[in-house]
Predict the structure.
Amino acid sequence: MDYDLYMQRCIQLARNGQQTASPNPMVGSVLVSEGRIIGEGFHKIAGQAHAEEEAIRSVSDPSKLKCATLFVNLEPCAHHGKTPPCADLIIKNEIPRVVIGCSDHFPAVAGKGIQKLRNAGIEVIENVCRDEAEHLNRRFFTFHLKKRPYVILKWAQSADAFMDPQRVSGYLGSYPVSGSVSRRLVHRWRAEEDAILVGIGTVLKDNPRLTVRGINGKNPLRIVIDTYNRMPLTSALFEEEGTTCVFNIQCAEGKTNDKIRRVLLPDSTPAHWLNALYEMGIHSVLVEGGKAILQSFIKSGWWDEARIFSSMVTFGSGLTAPVIPFSANKSERIGEDHLFIYFRE
């Protein structure tokens, strides 16, 4: 049996929950009998059936479960959460073999699911496509192991490494650097993360909406670092659909309405921002700029991934882009731009 092939299918299925599974991990499951897939499923929404249950339910002839192998990219749970333990369901259906991509670092699971299966006499094969399985749920693991959200930095720069051209005095509004294909991709990224973060400088200069447009997807929680309450009530963040949270250290005189939440922090640093987001249950945050905010994450080391668009245009002068101090892990062409992706670890 080609274990890698079926695990790749689990990972493919799991990605269907990219926008909806959080705060749960993305999980896909496949049932194989006599060299054929007889059932499959993925975890759609937190609080609903897990991938293993979806796969078992999809089998048209339940008698085949007793000679089937269940593949799943993440260790089956062994605790009662919003749903019953998947390990118990596997045991109940007398599935003789389970193949797992990676163990679950969540403390309520963390090897307990594997042990429960083995105690019931089920053969368990671990760490099939482990690196890919762990990478898929890097947000979930970072939240539970590092006690903070997974941080993705994103910006676009010109071919000569400027984020913004030299502007005419008084010019307000965003200045497009990347192409239309790249901008559409960014909206998909927004829908995949729990929150999006910018600084007050970006709000005052570009007046962004920070919503998901042009694709189907949820709006992330919008975070603005506005230390001294400078965001005007005319900001698009007050008008657009979605929730905005403002981090500051002096909020007594802060402007507000029913679409904004203010969080008072002891200091304005990435460590304090991420701790506040962790306390709010945010598993991932997309940091979209500007330079000062991005550089603060890079300098402090509080980031996990960077996605940088490099366009074909040149500016000659303007606002220089931040610098990642090592080579990109991967690059690809996105429309007329190049996308460079960095992983810190």
